[in-house]
Amino acid sequence: MSNAFDTFFFSVYPYICLSIFLLGSLARFERAQYTWKSDSSQLLRHAQLRWGSNLFHIGVLFLLFGHTVGLLTPHALYSAFITASQKQMLAIVSGGVAGTLCFVGLTMLLHRRLFDPRIRKTSRSTDIAILAVLWVQLCLGLLTLPFSYAQRADAHEMLMLADWAQRIVTLRPDASAMASVLWPFKLHLILGMTVFLLFPFTRLVHIWSGFGTLAYALRPYQLVRSRRLGPVARRNGVRRGF
């Protein structure tokens, strides 16, 4: 039973989540573009949103970047500069700080969604559900920190998780090593993949727009020329437009 559990969630489930994440996002953009937005509730109550949103976004962006670089960078690329143990300690400290900021901000956002009557009335069930899922995922991530600290000497768990992630992205899945991984890490991974599964059906799709702004900033200038009016139009009193 344990082998079947590990094989499904760490060899099959990642590709299910990634497929729905990509194809679902594309389908929503094609079929429901008017729902492609963050649905901000700033007009209803902005003070708590300002603090909560800033803390959450600062923390979550750092965590996403740190997880991506930490898991997908092969050990051979950084072993000459930093040991695995030092890297794990760096991840514990920086992840702990960013995770705490994110936890405070996300708790504020979830609190205002649940306990402000106007915001609760205008919130969809998916808005509250995805915040709750992210909150639980963040708690699981913070829960892994003591276990990581206890294993900082050889960083065996971190190297094993990195190897698993790199095998997933290179289409060489191998769940055999995950049998010895501690349960907080397993739950954190499974719920993290589930967030990608839920992504196209929630307000999280607006994250794609953030990448779109980079392309918008690099677009060429739009040339606007004045339109010359003919003699008939001038006689009729039509003004020159742009």
Descriptive report:
With 242 residues, the protein is mainly α. It has one domain: Transmembrane di-heme cytochromes, Chain C (Fumarate Reductase Cytochrome B subunit). The chain has helices at 2-31, 47-72, 75-78, 84-115, 117-122, 125-150, 156-169, 183-198, 206-217, 231-235. α1 (2-31) packs parallel to α8 (183-198) and α2 runs antiparallel to α4.
What is the element layout, followed by pairings?
Elements: H1 2-31, H2 47-72, H3 75-78, H4 84-115, H5 117-122, H6 125-150, H7 156-169, H8 183-198, H9 206-217, H10 231-235
Helix pairs in contact: 1-8, 2-4, 4-6, 6-8
Subunit structure: Dimer of heterotrimers each composed of an alpha, a beta and a gamma chain. Alpha and beta are catalytic chains; gamma chains are involved in binding the enzyme complex to the cytoplasmic membrane.
Domain NarG-like: 6-227
GO molecular function, one term: metal ion binding
List keywords for this structure.
242 residues, mainly alpha, Fumarate Reductase Cytochrome B subunit, disordered C terminus
